[in-house]
Write a structure and sequence with these properties.
heterodimer, A: alpha+beta, six-stranded antiparallel barrel, five-stranded mixed sheet, 20 strands, B: alpha/beta, eight-stranded mixed sheet
Chain lengths: 501, 279
């Protein structure tokens, strides 16, 4: 079997994770500290900072002394985790067989991609471009096994492709240290005078096994360009997450939304790669430590908001509108020093258009519309009306609006009935009775003498939980309108619950 | 042989005639959506025009909801999706089902108030794909101030008659206590339920915007209100009137009429009878 794998490698993940969340920093000298409170050290520096003399290994104070204009950012594990997941999402868009390696590195099986791409150069370029889209500067190596692909990604600029069967020749002149042997094996090889991978490949396997053990045999197989272990895939994530720790606390909604926008954009980019959409968003607001009680429980410093989209959507504007509504309706009680956005993914609805039916809204547009209407009207106030199997004449439900095809649903209008303009909630009424007959009726917005009446029509419902016992009447008042009125036999109260239209 | 040649010529001729009748997809979509009341559709050159706003006004129990449900059902029968933007929260699903509306193919939005309703209608039209959007403002738009009746004594007498019973107030009018005692509100305009934070009038630009959206989406808008509110932005204004109710122990039917008050489609002034039977 002709195995081909691609290796995606992001050099310097802590630095790239920060640049991904704030791309404007790329043009400035930037160093990343390890985040320790006492004598923080520089763990990475971009090219601009390196040119000024700031480099990894110095303390932040030393770097600032060398180059006062450098910008210092503390390492953010949340950002690094999000960057790694973004890389996995990108790889998953190309192949389901992928294996995350160390941070910033992923290997994926591209053996079957030749059906979609003409050449391996196209695959490598697509991966490289994809990484740029998710905000990461990656290198891509393609070879017949993962170690060769890793070395190609490490040494190459941008993309590097090792042609099939040429792995051994490609590796032959490279230093053996690139195979990352253990310290003991590296020492032995040095003693033997083995400098290049080609020299290692020429050594007999049996002798290597006797002297270096299984590690030596594995290295020799890699050096000869032979396929190594199979990929160890991992299941798809259930929740997608993007987060940021803020340099200083934010205390207004606008600023928070500005930060949230970038996180949501990054999330949507990742979901797009997996052909998913957001069905539920969770905002985790980290409250400034100064406002949290010292003895409080671990979760006390978090304010978690759940935002449910009307239907799975990939519209940033819709999600941000929903976020704004959630934040403005109940603003956080204290400044926020960190924000994490978690998305529970869902599939956008696929629909088959009918040949002889008028075109409805596209699934994407419909999802966005429903989400926007939810934000505008509120929960439970947008959807398809549904009947409920109860005796109460005003019982109804609201279902999710997912219109079936025209042919699938036939109207059932067997029972003729006067249309009702419902009063929700039913308006409390004052009824004036004379010898048991309704004479006058007043309620909010209506009043008059009773001209005609029909009833009572007794309705008994929900006897097993909260019993309802009502007498319904059709009542024509002197204002000319005809109302549906009920008398609650438990409470004795009268209500007008609609007007026949 | 000659017979088969003649047959072929006949088939070819019929095919030519059929192809001459073929039309574009846009033409296939009818220019009007039916109300479902044949006499009324005839007066309106086919029903509700696509891309236009039609107003339906009237008092309580005059048949506005019946006509709106009829239009929704008829539009659905043509295979279209429909939407109801229900600012009054008055839509009754059992009534709609009985009127032949396929509930799963109806989008029901209940925005809080008139301004939100206009926004919701705007968004529904912007998404496209809905043949008919019913904007139901009956009982929500504020009653417009009108002059007091020419015979105040009659009104006072009516109030006296009612107060004798110590219960009801004003059988026909709600008296507004103000510095201008001769100003009253129309009974049908629900000044009573007007939500807070709501202006009494909608800016005309809102109607113009809705009209544009409808035109772009190819949808018809049916605006249901107590009295005309969209002015010249509506292509036609229909007024429903309640004439009488039929009672034989039970409520059997409500008789009324629909009058084309104003129409750019012709036939203004036409009156169509509307009978709503209960059973």
């Amino acid at each position: 079997v002709n195995v081909r794998v691609a290796y995606l490698r992001v050099a310097d993940p802590p630095l790239q994770a920060i640049l991904r969340s704030d791309p404007d920093l790329a043009a400035q000298p930037l160093i990343v500290s390890d985040g320790k409170e006492r004598t923080p050290a520089v763990i990475s520096a971009n090219l601009h900072a390196q040119k000024l003399g700031a480099r990894a290994g110095l303390t932040v104070a030393q770097a600032r002394a060398v180059a006062p204009e450098v910008i210092v950012r503390a390492r953010s594990l949340a950002l690094e985790r999000a960057a790694q997941e973004a890389l996995e999402d990108l790889a998953a868009a190309f192949s389901p067989r992928l294996e995350p390696r160390s941070p910033g590195e992923i290997v994926l099986d591209i053996g079957d991609l030749r059906r979609l791409f003409d050449t391996e150069e196209q695959i490598a370029t697509a991966l490289w471009n994809g990484a740029r889209k998710v905000g990461l500067d990656a290198q891509v190596g393609i070879a017949g096994n993962r170690e060769t692909a890793r070395i190609a990604a490490t040494l190459g600029e941008g993309v590097q492709i090792v042609p099939p069967g040429r792995e051994a020749a490609y590796l032959a002149r490279l230093p053996v240290a690139l195979l990352q042997p253990s310290e003991e094996v590296a020492l032995n090889l040095q003693r033997w005078g083995v400098r290049t991978i080609g020299e290692l490949a020429n050594l007999p396997s049996r002798g290597l096994g006797l002297r270096l053990g299984s590690d030596g045999v594995r290295l020799a197989r890699v050096a000869r360009g032979q396929s190594d272990d199979p990929l160890v895939p991992r299941p798809d994530p259930i929740v997608f997450e993007e987060g940021i720790d803020l340099e200083w606390p934010l205390d207004n909604v606008e600023a928070l939304l500005f930060v949230a926008r970038r996180l949501v954009d990054n999330l949507l980019e990742r979901l797009t790669w997996r052909a998913l959409a957001v069905s539920e968003l969770e905002l985790v607001l980290k409250i400034d430590r100064a406002f949290v009680d010292v003895g409080a429980a671990a979760g006390a410093g978090l304010d978690i908001r759940k935002i449910v989209a009307g239907a799975p959507t990939r519209e940033a504007a819709t999600l941000l509108t929903l976020t704004r509504v959630a934040l403005e309706s109940a603003p956080p009680g204290a400044p926020i020093c960190g924000l994490t956005v978690r998305a529970r993914p869902g599939h956008t609805r696929a629909s088959q258009l009918g040949l002889f039916e008028p075109t409805g809204p596209s699934p994407d547009k419909l999802a966005t519309l429903l989400a926007r209407l939810h934000a505008l009207a509120g929960e439970g106030r947008v959807g398809a009306p549904a009947l409920v199997d109860r005796h109460l004449p005003d019982a109804y439900a609201v279902a999710t609006f997912a219109p079936p095809s025209h042919a699938a649903e036939r109207p059932d209008s067997s029972g003729r009935r006067l249309a009702l303009h419902a009063f929700r909630p039913p308006r409390p009424a004052e009824a004036h009775l004379d010898r048991g007959r309704l004479r006058y009726l007043t309620a909010d917005g209506l009043a008059g003498q009773v001209v005609h009446t029909a009833g009572p029509f007794r309705v008994r419902d929900a006897w097993w939980q909260s019993p309802v016992l009502r007498d319904y009447f059709d009542v024509e008042l002197s204002d000319g309108a005809i109302y549906r009125v009920f008398h609650d036999l438990h409470t004795g109260a009268w209500h007008v619950d609609g007007c026949y239209e | 042989m000659a017979a088969s040649a003649a047959r072929i010529a006949e088939v070819l001729a019929s095919l030519r005639a059929a192809s001459a009748r073929l039309c574009t997809a846009a033409e296939v979509r009818r220019a009007h959506l039916p109300f479902g009341v044949p006499a009324l559709d005839a007066q309106l050159a086919g029903g509700l025009p696509r891309g236009k706003l039609t107003e339906l006004t009237g008092a309580r129990s005059s048949g506005r909801m019946t006509l709106a449900l009829s239009a929704l059902a008829a539009t659905q029968r043509a295979g279209e999706l429909v939407a109801v933007v229900d600012a009054a929260d008055a839509f009754d699903p059992p009534s709609a089902h009985a009127a032949g509306v396929v509930l799963p193919r109806l989008l029901w939005v209940r925005p809080p108030g008139q301004t939100a309703a206009l926004q919701a209608a705007d968004r529904v039209l912007d998404a496209g794909g809905f043949g008919l959007v019913v904007l139901y403002l009956a009982g929500v738009a504020r009653g417009k101030p009108v002059a007091a009746p020419s015979q105040p004594a009659a009104a006072i007498a009516a109030i006296h008659a009612v107060t004798r019973h110590h219960r009801a107030v004003g059988a026909e009018l709600q008296l507004v206590v103000s510095n201008e005692p001769r100003v009253v509100r129309q009974p049908e305009g629900s000044a009573f339920r007007a939500p807070r934070r709501q202006s009494s009038a909608v800016a005309s630009s809102a109607w113009a915007r809705l009209q544009q959206r409808a035109e772009k989406a190819g949808s018809a808008i049916l605006l249901v209100a107590d009295y005309p509110v969209a002015g010249s932005f509506s292509v036609a204004t229909l007024e429903t009137r309640r004439e009488r109710a039929e009672w034989t122990g039970l409520l059997d039917a409500i008789h009324g009429t629909v009058r084309v008050v104003r129409s750019k489609l012709g036939a203004p002034g036409a009156v169509v009878e509307l009978v709503r039977a209960a059973v």
